[in-house]
Amino acid sequence: MASPPARSIRSTSQPVRIAVIGAGAVTAYHHVPGIELDPRARLAAVCDADPALVDRRLKEWNCTRGTTDALQLCADPDIDAVIIATPNFTHREIAIAAARQGKHVMCEKPLALNAAQVREMYVAARDAAVVHMTAFTYRFAPAMRYLRHLLRAGELGEPRHFRSQRFLDLPETSWGWRQYQDKAGAGDLFDMTIHRIDFALDLLGPLARICGAVARFAPRDRTADGQSCPPSNVDDWSALIGEFASGAVGVWEGTTLAKGYGKNGFGHEGAEINGSEASAVYRLHEPNTLLFGRTGSDLAPRPVPDEFLRPTGSPRPLGAGEPATVFRYDLVWEFVSAIVERREAVPSFYDGLRSQVVADAVLASQATRSWQEIPVEAR
Known about the structure:
Layout: E1 16-21, H1 25-37, E2 41-47, H2 51-60, E3 66-67, H3 70-74, E4 81-84, H4 91-100, E5 104-107, H5 115-128, E6 132-134, H6 142-152, E7 159-167, H7 181-184, H8 188-204, E8 207-215, E9 237-244, E10 249-255, E11 268-275, E12 278-283, E13 289-294, E14 300-303, H9 323-326, H10 330-341, H11 349-368, E15 372-373
Parallel strand pairs: 1-2, 1-4, 2-3, 4-5, 5-6, 7-10
Antiparallel strand pairs: 7-11, 8-9, 8-15, 9-10, 11-12, 12-13, 13-14
């Protein structure tokens, strides 16, 4: 484990002044509500490439500072930390600039377009001794936190199989920048499956080797209002098979074209571990309940105990809001906690790097039709 970050805010008695860079739906849905809930944090600035969106968000979020210049904001001495939620191809430059200016950084996934770029981001943040965090939101789902506890406590026995599915029923119209390789890196693989890769690495440790594939079925050559646009050149389906260093095995599948998997806009997400003693299943649409079963009985619902419904100390009220939404606010809670407590955030840029190495290997496996060895990344 690396040493805790040396830099922190000016004083622990003053709120962490956070700038959000990228003012779109993810920031509105996850990050700003998290900042508003946390008395240790303050939304200090809003940045976006679209000046009209900046003006609108300043009013909506009751913030007085707005800009379209991300790099200038990274150098601002009145900013302590940044949350980056911009298009994937912009992450690397902004994150490195922020780290070198002593700003703590949380960045949406994927951290960059490939592992080489992510490695640069990790090294820059590590060497600057700032808190760095990858926005792997679903780690904070209560059922996922409880599954991790059951595994660590030995209730599942020796873990043997990991299984993950992420099925969405999205329109087959344009994704904008997300559907082009030079802007997004990849499609479903980098946008969705990478979350489940992170699950597996967190739960079962490093992967030794994988084979994988991606495919594209929807051309996405029309916008939602019927205008023509260049067709997509990224995947809308991805899958992989993996062998862990521990000897366990894993299977992942993700798609944005699973007709009928609406589930009130959340889609289907499931992850499970089959151990030598028991199986446990996490599902996004019921994030406060786990399925659990042993030999001789069927899988049955098990409510997540209160201590796993939110992090200790979180101001998020239990029982309030949509369960599949509210746990996402804990992402900011962890980021601010790491800054205030002068420790590493979990998950860090290192976690983002490990997952990116695996995701890149899926593309290499598709291209070569071969198994790929997964190297161990140095800290």
